[in-house]
Amino acid sequence: MQIMNEVLGNKLIVIPLLACILSQIIKVTVDTVHNRKFSFRYIVSTGGMPSAHSALVGSLATGVGQTLGWSSSEFAIASIFAGIVMYDAAGVRQAAGKQAKVLNQIMEGMINNEDFNEERLKELLGHTPFQVVVGLILGILSSAIFLPLV
Fold this sequence. Notes:
The chain has 150 residues and is mostly helical. Helix content is 69%, strand content 0%. It has helices spanning 2-8, 11-35, 52-68, 73-109, 129-146. Helix 3 (52-68) runs antiparallel to helix 4. It is elongated and about 55 Å long. The mean pLDDT is 84.
């Protein structure tokens, strides 16, 4: 129980997780307004506006910088980690989503074949660069606002 209390008392874990949750809440709200329909599945899905991954790693790097110093090795590690995660979100995963869309279109063309019974691939995997930047800003603001309060 003491370990759990220590983990939950670690502001460099709690605040980035809160930034991630806040991002997901914003994402669901944006999707609900845009589609005029609430989708429970969208709460835990990847992709969309803003990037929860970017909010989490942006908040983590900012919190490490605030706590341990902007010239610390830990801040350098957290920043490089954040850069890799955001590059992956906007680059690799977005490209995979585009490939899934093309494959789904090909599968729809083959739907008349009764032997072909595969489910559609998930297309919303990554983020646009704008979604990543908005997630990053949300993460930075989360740590800048909440870290001094904790």
